Amino acid sequence: MGGLSAGRCLVMGVINVTPDSFSDGGKWLDAKTAIAHGVDLVDGGADLVDVGGESTRPGALRIDAAEELRRVIPVVKALAAQGVPISVDTMRATVAQQSLDAGALIINDVSGGRADPDMFGVAARSGKPLVLMHWREHSRAMQNNTHYDDVVADVIAELRLQIEAAHEAGIADDNLIVDPGLGFSKTGEQNWTVLRHLDAFAGLGYPLLVAASRKRFLGELLADGEAFRPTDGREAATVALSTIAAEHGAWCVRVHEPAASADAVRVVARLRSED
Ligand code: PMM
User: Does the predicted TM-score (pTM) go above 0.90?
Assistant: First the structure.
């Protein structure tokens, strides 16, 4: 993964340039604010910054490519120009290509190449790393598609198909990163099962990205009666999962607030190192 390794689990900070993402929707919609937030994420300990323009929260409707480009490209361009390592969170080949042209280093495709038939071609030609997340269908209906015989075995088998398709499209093996896709076509219970078996996902032999930050299943776990814990009260639980992901060999954790996770991954690295 070239310069994108540090002898420890990396921390990816998140900027959603969207009006409607579940945890930070609307906060960074203006490019200037988003760019300043990207710099804050790095100052707060993020090793790289993930920029996305399309919400993937359950039930979300899609925006068009022009709107996604309008949201994402100025932010990618400005942060990359300041030397911030950028991944672009997009399911569209055209947004991926223009983001790479603007200086992004990684394509983070939550559909794992399944939403846009041109995505693998862009990734293959660019020679840049591609995150293949486990994905079944678009957000609008994904929570109606959560049947598995065995969630760990089935998600791994589906990820293997995505990996095979990426190979066939000419993407180099060492440019693939995998992600189990917590919350994507998965119930809260299934997310916990996946997290209990991170070793099996790491065992695929690719760098593993884990993105649990502030997700709904944490709000449910920490609920006060019927009321889910609000997103800004899910930080400590997020850091607990960053620690566990790092302990199980994750390459990177994707989080909204990097500072505490950046400390946690250093604690794990120190414990795992020999004296
Ligand atoms: N989750 C979200 C967005 N992008 N990317 C990857 N690779 N893995 C994820 O699980 C993932 C993602 C949704 O969360 P957000 O709205 O907080 O960004």
Answer: yes
Element (H, E) at 197: none
- In b/e form, how buried is each residue of 78-107, taking b as 16+ CB within 10 angstroms? bbbeeebbbbbbbbbbbbbbbbbebbbbbb
Residue nearest to atom 6 of ligand 1 (CA): 110
Q: CA-CA distance, 79 to 87, in Å (whole number)?
A: 11
Closest ligand 1 atom, residue 184 Cα: 10
CATH number of the domain located at residue range(s) 10-272 in this protein: 3.20.20.20
Phi and psi angles of residue 245, each rounded to the nearest 5 degrees, phi first: -60, -45
- Alpha-carbon span 40 to 19, nearest angstrom: 20
Pocket of ligand 1 (CB under 6 A): 14, 16, 21-23, 56-57, 89, 108, 110, 131, 133, 179, 181-182, 209, 211, 254
pLDDT in tens, the chain (275 residues): 545 788 999 999 999 999 877 777 778 878 999 999 999 999 999 999 999 999 888 888 889 999 999 999 999 999 999 999 999 999 999 999 999 999 999 999 999 999 999 999 999 999 999 999 999 988 888 888 899 999 999 999 999 999 999 999 999 999 999 999 999 999 999 999 999 999 999 999 999 999 999 999 999 999 999 999 999 999 999 999 999 999 999 999 999 999 999 999 999 999 999 86
> Is 238 within 8 Å of 11 (Cβ atoms)?
no
| Nearest protein CA to atom 11 of ligand 1, as residue | 211
